UniProtKB/TrEMBL annotation:
Residues 1-32 form the signal peptide. One of its GO terms (molecular function) is ligand-gated monoatomic ion channel activity. GO terms for cellular component: extracellular region; membrane; outer membrane-bounded periplasmic space. It comes from Affinibrenneria salicis. This is Transporter substrate-binding domain-containing protein. Keywords: Signal, Transport.
Length: 277
């Protein structure tokens, strides 16, 4: 009887193991079919999250249209995939939640690649490099972080908590977060905050477009890479985006749109991907 029980138990375990293998294989196959690339091609539309308040990356022109370096970048990606592009406005606070919820397929939204963000999403290869700077009111006398000790400093909602914590630790200042660049810049002008800290490129454009009102000073963090955000664990989609970025670099489109929106040639030391693949 004991021998029979062992045999029956073995048969039962073998059956369970086989069923688990089949279920796992079926689940893996289903997951493989759910790549964002397949979804985008099936619907014929790429839902791209872009900024409306972060020139030169993404902003609204005088005709009410989305324009900018990353806007043109996602249009290029759509062209490479043979699909239309639906531009969806995101902010620094909403870009990751909208990506995770599936409302957008990618976020080309002035986003630094950080370890903190890598816990929530995946990134493309770096497609631009920017440093962190300080926006202050013209004539404030502020030249760097040392001059901000004890003052109120603004960051945009969705900024890396590590950056805010470092600034708070070094200055002892109160840190406030604001929804977008426009509101934050207005807070600087009105004296509600002493400074706004964020990526340098939008700050330079903001100061240029508002002569006599702002200055861009100091350096809060050195040049750091930015990338296009995507949902985690979707290598097929990530490859498709990366290959499009590499093609954009190799065919000269990258330099053309970078120069158009940044007003200078790309940093000669920066290459999107240094190998031919």
């Amino acid at each position: 009887m004991i021998g029979v029980s062992y045999r029956n138990a073995f048969r039962l375990l073998t059956g369970v193991f086989a069923a688990c293998c089949i279920a796992t294989a079926s689940l893996s196959a289903a997951q493989a079919q759910e790549s964002t690339l397949d979804k985008v091609k099936a619907r014929g539309v790429l839902n791209a999250g872009v900024r409306s308040d972060a020139p030169p990356f993404g902003y609204i022109d005088e005709n009410g249209h989305h324009v900018g370096f990353e806007v043109d970048t996602v249009k290029y990606i759509g062209q490479k995939l043979g699909v239309k592009v639906n531009l969806i406005t995101v902010t620094s606070a909403t870009r990751i939640p909208l990506l995770q919820s599936g409302q957008i397929d990618l976020a080309a939204a002035a986003m630094n690649i950080t370890r903190e963000r890598e816990k929530a999403i995946d990134f493309s290869v770096p497609h631009v490099v920017v440093s962190g700077k300080i926006l202050v009111k013209k004539g404030s006398g502020i030249q760097g972080l040392d001059d901000l000790k004890g003052k109120k400093i603004a960051f945009l909602q969705g900024s890396p908590s590590t950056a805010m914590e470092r600034v708070k630790a070094s200055t002892g200042s109160e840190i406030v977060t604001l929804p977008d660049t426009t509101q934050a810049a207005q807070a600087v002008l009105q004296g509600k905050v002493a400074a706004l800290i964020m990526d340098s490129a939008p700050l330079y454009v903001l100061a240029k477009n508002n002569p006599g009102k702002f200055e861009v000073v100091g350096e809060v963090w050195p040049a750091a890479p930015e990338g296009i955000g995507m949902r985690q664990n979707d290598s097929e989609w990530r490859d498709a985006v990366n290959f499009a970025l590499i093609d954009m670099w190799n065919d000269g489109t990258y330099k053309k749109i970078y120069t158009q929106y940044f007003g200078v040639d790309p940093d000669p030391s920066f290459i999107i991907y240094p190998w031919q693949i």
